[in-house]
Every structure is written in structure tokens, then in C-alpha cells.
Amino acid sequence: MNKEKRMSKKKRHVLIGVGISFVLIIAALLYYAFVITTAGQWFLSKFTPDTEQQQVAFSSALETTELIADEGFVLMKNDDNLLPLSTSENKKTKINLFGTRSVVTLFNSGGSTATNVESAIKVEDALRDEGNFELNDNLLNLYYNFYKTGDISTEQTTPPKNRSDSEILGESNNLILPELPASAFSDESLFEDNKTIIQNAKDYSDVAMIVLGRGGGEMQELSPKDLRLTNEEEVLIEEVSSAFDKVILVINSANVLQLDFLENYPSIKSVLWIGYPGESGTKSLARILNGTVNPSGRTVAMWPSDIMNNPAALNYMELNDEGEFISDGHYENAPEETGYFVQLHEGIYVGYKYYETRHNTDSSYNYQEEVVYPFGHGLSYTTFEKDILAINVEDDIVTVRVSVENTGDVVGKDVIQLYANPPYSGDIEKASANLIRFLKTNEMEPGQSDVYSFDIPFEDFASYDYKNEEAYVLEVGNYTIDLKDNSHDVLASETFNVGNEVVYSESKDGSRTSDVAAATNQFADALHIDDYLTRAWDENSRAFTGPQPDDYIASEEVLSALNYEVPTDEELGLAESDLPPYNQTLDETLMLEDMVGVSLDDPKWDTFVSQLDLEELTGVSGTGAYQLMEIERLGVPKTLNPDGTMAIASNIYSGPIMGVEGVGVTYPSPMVLASTWNKDIAYLMGTSVGNEAQGFGYSGWYAPAMNILRTPYNGRNFEYYSEDGTLAGEIAAGVVKGATDKGVITYVKHFALNERETGVRSSLFTWSNEQAIREIYLKPFEKAIKEGGSIGVMSSFNFIGQTWAGGHEGLLTNVLRNEWGFDGFVLTDAHMYPHMNVMQMLHAGGDVSLDTMAAWQGGRNHADTMLEFAEDENTNVSTIIALQKASKNVLHAITETWKMQE
């Protein structure tokens, strides 16, 4: 008995000890969550009801989402005018829905822009409620059961929930969902009358709609094989298309798919691309199907017949004959898990610029076999006639007047597309088709005619010459302006002549009017090997053959670039006398509100930042993860900056750091916005995001993303706008302008040449010539800065040549600030990889580290690194100079947002 009591007492002590330990652990976790970090506040804010301002912003944003989808979805094909489908309350059209994506639709995708899409409107709900259609419940249940359990059954069941993309980050199994096996279509046991799935569907309706989709996300790639039909999808297409004469194909993918199969199935009469439709974009799908909305979207990339027939294909990653990636471009002599490369040997011939130029210059090239749908393609339920009424050249400005007439019998909108075809001497590479101006028309009644005028400065026709003049050059010769229906089909042309060469350099004809200083070479070390695609169309060039064995051996210069050595003050030519004052006490303290409206180059900013001590200076530059640091004594607020190109929203990463649960509407993917070809809608989206930001208390937004759709393979393509820099840049500029006008700092990203996911977080060396860098990859950013007025930029993970983009002085200082006149600040991408050196960032002209580790630790990380160099007598002068410059840039940007809100 005593022994049992002793044992019981011992157990009690153990239990008490465990209990105390448990309490201590819980207490520590709570202390960490509520004191060290703001995760606790974020958690509690989840239970706070929306304010009236937030509700109004949310409602307005939903309307904007539908406007984007109304004009952004692209009707690619509509044989025999199958669409729109006539339906009414008295006689509803019945539709058979096929495809797993018809019930598990992609509304968004994974990564930094992930949002919870559980409340997004399902395709079937939109078709019923908005489109006034009836749907075959047997088919819906079939796909519900198959997706949820893998069973082939038509038994009634509840629909699956929309998958929240914040839950599927990094899950490659969401890229392609399985479709019904071939055996399911011959199964005669599913119905009491022993009919097959197809027989039952035909009894229900003579209309079938197939939904095909592909997912995406950060750290994901889609190989050419992934972008072709799977075996099960081939069976689906064959079974449905062989049985039905009226088939509608809906493409739920941001990545271009290989659609060569369409020519084998004439019963697929209509093809409608919806990208990722966002929270309520499926309502637009229903409205287009029933004719309530007349589609006016246009493609933003080429849709080739073979997903591998573009010259960038083999220079993305090495492929086998089946279209599978077999090499990730890792340097064999580089350290393991670091040192990758990608070669942009197609030069300027990206997307339609390659296909159209080759068609125009190579008589052996069969364009019709190579292309299914060109860039800028899209159909309407009405018809339009467009023509160039006049062209006038005066004072180095070309004015083009275009007439548009709605010649059909339905109200609709059209897109005006003007392309430049410059003279080609062989000295500078030039595509024969270059989008130079575009415009979405107003809504036009049948029979209505409108005239639109475009002013195009000569400098917009110039090409960048990196070999000889090292400047933009307008060559002598005839320049043709083509009015086109898309990148391929010419409607009218006019030609003007340039009689004298213009070299936009400081030593010759001066800079372009849009530049503060003339552009000159900044990326010489990115050239690597000067073997880039030319109009010779040499099939043995690196553009078509891909990397050679020697390319997999990194040079000593490349290997040494993996490690950055911080220069000393002596090496930079600085002495102690150059040390600026800091931690100053002024006779009258300057508060940040005193700096509103003060120009960045005003000496008053030097006085203001001289008040900051080293802890504050390094804090401003070193603690930038989803926020900018508060300095209460000087009236500097804590500013919150959530992520996301498809929403302004806290997520599982940013929410706990910011301590806020402000979740905005999920907009359609940026490709859908660009497919509107409507700059007014882009501006509307920006203002809509700005309204949401004001409701949530956000001051910044890690968006828009404007890298180029160089190939269809990038899993992050859904975040980007187009393969064309003019279209991407002007649409992004509209978004930026709208948000900026509402006092939001837009962080245009990822600056620059971040066109691949694999290896980019592990030192990806990007090789290109400077003409392609400037004309293709920098152009969207240039327009977002110059036309949109963005005061924030997010740099990228990759190297450009031998220098990390986030520490590239040529990019961040010489191009961005000195040439383009940018006076905002530069933030790194997630600063958690070894090649991203915070001191290199500072010395190159970067301003803030997105230091996620510091945020999660509840304190300082890179800030302490900078503090060490600021206190080191060998580096203190250059470090403090750089820190004060960064603080000026950051704090000036904050005051600019205040000025916008006045």
C-alpha cells in the first residue's frame, strides 16, 4: 500500500512537472507571439468584423474583378457562331460539363500571391445563377466523386470546396489534375438503363463544355510535356468531341497550352480562354456564354502549335525529345546547390517578334503550321472595320489617325493595334513587328464610327545599339506603321522616312526626351558569348541548339562572383573627413510631417536624416519584411506592405509579421487584365486596390509583377502580364498610377530578368545582350516608373551577368535613377539566400532588405550586419553615407504617399 502511495506520489510529481513545463511552453509561445512578434495580433484580428469602409471597398473590388473578366476573357474560336448560347427563363439551355477543372477550377495559384479562394464563385454556380443555364447533375456528381475519392460514381454528393491556394503552396500535384480513365467512358453500370456517361449526356443536351486547366506557383515549372494533353485528357477530348457536334473548350490556365489537337476535332467549335478568373470572374464566363457580354479580350502571348518551337525553348532548361526537363543548368564546377545559369540567346526575338519576323523574312518558314493563335488575337460577337485615315509627320512626331466602325449588329468593343516595322541594315537587330501603340475602343453601337488619334515620337522607333554607339539609335530609312487585327494580320499600312540618323547619346544628339540622362551600356558582363539570334535564322545557333558542354563549366570570374567582398573606405577613396553627421540634436526637431512636399534633392533631407542614430539608420534599411520601421520620436509611422499580384492581402507569411488580417478581393490573374488591352480598366484596378489598402491600413503593395512571358514554362507566369514589354508596361503603369493616386507604394517586381524559377534562389546567372535587356526585359519597368509613377521597386533574386540584380549598381543606380529619374526606393526580394549580400545592396543603390528572418525573430538580423560595418573604422564612412541615402529614399517615399492622400 505504501509502495503504491509512493508510486502515486511520484506520478503526481511527474504530472505536475509536465504540467508546469507545458504551461511554461505555452507562456513562452504566447510571449513570443504577442511580444516578440505580432503573430498574436494577427490571430486575434481574424475575429474582428470588417469595417464599413472595408465592406465598401470589398464590394467595389468585386465589381472591378468582373469588369476585368468581362473584357479580359478571350474568345479564340467560334465556328458556326456557336456562341452565344440562347437561353431564357422560359427555355433554359442545358449544358454538359466535362473535365475535373470544371468543378475544381483554378481561381488563383500558389506562392506569395496565394489567397484563400474558398468563397470564389464556382463555374457551375455561375452558369446556373448568372448564365441561366441548366447543368447535367449526373456529370457534376461524377466529377465531384472522382476528385474527392477517385471513385467512378454518379451518386449524389456534396461539391468539393474550392481549394485555398495558401494551402497548396509548393504542391506540384495541383499543376495537373487527373481526368477520368478511359474505362469510365465504357462503363455501363453507372445508370439503371445501362447507358454510358456519353450516352446519358447526349440524352440530356446536345451541348458539351470541356474545362482544361494548368496550375502554377512559385518554385514551379511546367515542362512542354506538362503543357500538352495528358493521356486521360486525350481520351476526354476524343470521347466528347466524337459524340457531340457542339463542343465548347474553356481553358483555365495562365500558361499557354499546346492546342494543335484542335484541327483534328471540328466539333470543338468554340474556344474560350479565362486564365485564372479570381473571386467572381466566373460570372463573366456565364455572361459571355449567354451573350450578355460581348467578348473583347485579346491574347497577350503567342499560342504555337508545338510548345517547343520557340527559340527560347532549349535555352530555358535542357529538354529531351518528349518535352521533359532533364537538366536545370547547374554549373558542374560550382558548389552544390548554387551556381545555375540561363542563356537568353534568342536576343530580342521573344514571342511574336520571332514568329512574325521569321514569317516576313524566311520564305521557307510555314507560319500557319507553327502558330495556332497569334499575339493580339481575339474574336467578338460583332464585326469591325478599321483603317488608317491619315498619317502626319511633324517635329519628329508621327500622328496616326485610325477609324473604327462597328459593322455588325451587336454592341461591342474593339482593340486598335499599331505595330512598327523599322528598316533593317544588319547592324542592329530589329523585329519586323513591334507593338508601338494600342487602345481599347469605347463601347460601340452597330453602325457607329469613331476616330482615334495617336502621337508617336521618333524616339519610340529607336533600337538599342550595344555594339557600336552604346546608345539608342534611330537609323535612316523607311519605317512602316501597320494597323493590324493581331500581330499577324495587316489591315492597313503607312510608311514615313527618316532622313538623318539620330544617336541618343550625350556626345551626339542627346538623350531621349523621356530620359533624364542618355542610356549607355550598363550590362557588358552579361553578354557572356556574343552569339545571339539574328535574321539569318541559323538553326545551328545557340538560340536553337541550347547550351553546349563548355557552357556547363563556370569561369573563375563567375565562381568568384558568388562571394561579395565589402570594399573598405580606403578602396572607395573615402576619408574620415567625408563622414556625414548623424545622431544630431537640432535646435528644433524636424518631424517627418515637416518633410511633406520637400524634394528629394533638397538639403533639408540631409538635415532630417542627420537626426537618425545608427540603430535607426540600420533599422530603416534592415527590417523591411512586409513593413517599414517606425521611428516614433520623429513621427515616422510603421507602414504595412502586404504581398500579392492578384490581391492586396495578408497571408500566412505576411499576416503574422504585420499583425493584421486584411484580406482583399482576389482579382483575375494579371494576364487576364492585360488581355483587356484596356488601360482605363488597369487604372480602375489600381484605384480599387488602393481603396482596399486604405480600408486595411496598408501603405504598400508588393506588386505589380511585370517580368516577361519569355516561354510558357515558368510556373510563375500567372503573375505576369505579357510577352510584350509595351503591353505589359502600359497595363502595369495604369495599375501603378491608380494605386499610387490612392497613396499606396507599389513595389514593381522582380527587377529584373527574373524569367525562370528553377535555381533563381540559388544564384542563377542570366546571360543576355544589352539590346534584349533594354528592349524586352526592362521596358515594362521603365513604363511603370515613367508613366505610372511607381515610388517602389522590388529587386530580384537572379544575377544579371556576374552581378546579383539586388546589388547591381548599373541597374539600381545608373539605369533606374540616373536614366529614368526614379526617386523612390528599392527593396530586395525575400532576403534569405546566401548570395544576397546586404552590403552589396547598399553600395549598389538598394535601400531596404526584405529580411524575413529578422521579422520572424522579432528583431534585427541584416540591420545588425549593417551596424557592424557602420561601426567598423574601415567601412564606417561609406556605410553611413549609403544608409543615410537609403533612409532619405524610404522616408521621402512615405511622405509622397501622405501627399497623395491630402
TrEMBL record:
GO terms for molecular function: hydrolase activity, hydrolyzing O-glycosyl compounds. The keyword Nucleotide-binding does not apply. InterPro entries: Cellulose_deg_GH3, Fn3-like, GH, Glyco_hydro_3_C, Glyco_hydro_3_C_sf, Glyco_hydro_3_N, Glyco_hydro_3_N_sf, Ig-like_fold. SMART domains: Fn3_like (SM01217). The chain crosses the membrane at residues 12-34. Residues 414-487 form the Fibronectin type III-like domain. It comes from the Bacteria. Keywords: Hydrolase, Membrane, Transmembrane, Transmembrane helix. Coiled coil: none annotated. GO terms for biological process: carbohydrate metabolic process. PANTHER family: BETA-GLUCOSIDASE. Belongs to the glycosyl hydrolase 3 family. This is Beta-glucosidase. It comes from Streptohalobacillus salinus.
